[in-house]
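Data deposition worksheet. Section B asks for the primary sequence of the deposited chain exactly as it was used as input, without tags or linkers unless they were present during the calculation. Section C holds the resulting structure in token form. Section D is free text for depositor observations; keep each observation to a single sentence. Incomplete worksheets are returned to the depositor.
Section A, Depositor: J.P.
Section B:
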Amino acid sequence: MSKFSAEPFQITRVKELYKQETPDILAVEEPLEIRLGFGPEDSREQRNLAITMRTPGNDIELVIGFLFTEGIIESMIDLLRVERCTDSEGKLSDNVVRAELSPNVKMDWGKFQRHFYTNSSCGICGKASIDSLHELCESPLHDSFAVPTDIIHLLNQSMRDTQLVFEHTGGLHASALFNSSGELIYLREDIGRHNALDKVIGTALHEGLIPVKDSILMLSGRCCFELVQKAVRVACPILVAVGAPSNLAVKTAEEFGITLIGFARNNGFNIYSKPERIK
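Section C:
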């Protein structure tokens, strides 16, 4: 567990009629500002792209994953570098990261001035959301990839066994990438569900593993449209969530050929789309 991901805190614990002062550990939440450099070599521009509340750790991978899932980059070739910014004293910032796009990347800034879906009441209808995803991913998945039921049963416990910060704080989400045998490839934790998945995707992109065909993505909580969107972007055929999916998450999974599973816990789960991938 990283010292930057959790910190000690003194609390008052109450049980029945008794109070006791005791030490505890809290998950860390801090802002991360993402800056973007882009344009031809002789006329570069730099702008602030987004600010996200996250748990420190794997920040570079978070930014890479965010840029990919938002359609700003298509591969690592589109990036010159991703690095922490320095302050006025030349010290590396803990909370500001700059990504420099390759000069050949065409950046339409107006296109990305839309706000990045930050809550469930963003005012954008479901059809518009799915239509915008079609611009990034032209066709649904068509493959013969399938896994046996017992593999799905193993994923939740495997993920929980690796969630070190959650074990101490109870306050973080996790996302994990598994291979077809149910073996863990990457797991990342974060205060935000979207950030945890972007960290996994950023790591996979950096390591040259995208698209993640013949793989399974696992989420520690419920599943909304944005998380299915990210799975579509990396062409992952099976997305498993511990919690419930939304109706738009299911509609999107159906339209793009993803097997969406929810309530994957206690030796059971529900299949909401493409059940033929589960043998």
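Section D:
The first helix runs from residue 59 to 69.
Residues 115-127 have pLDDT under 50 and may be disordered.
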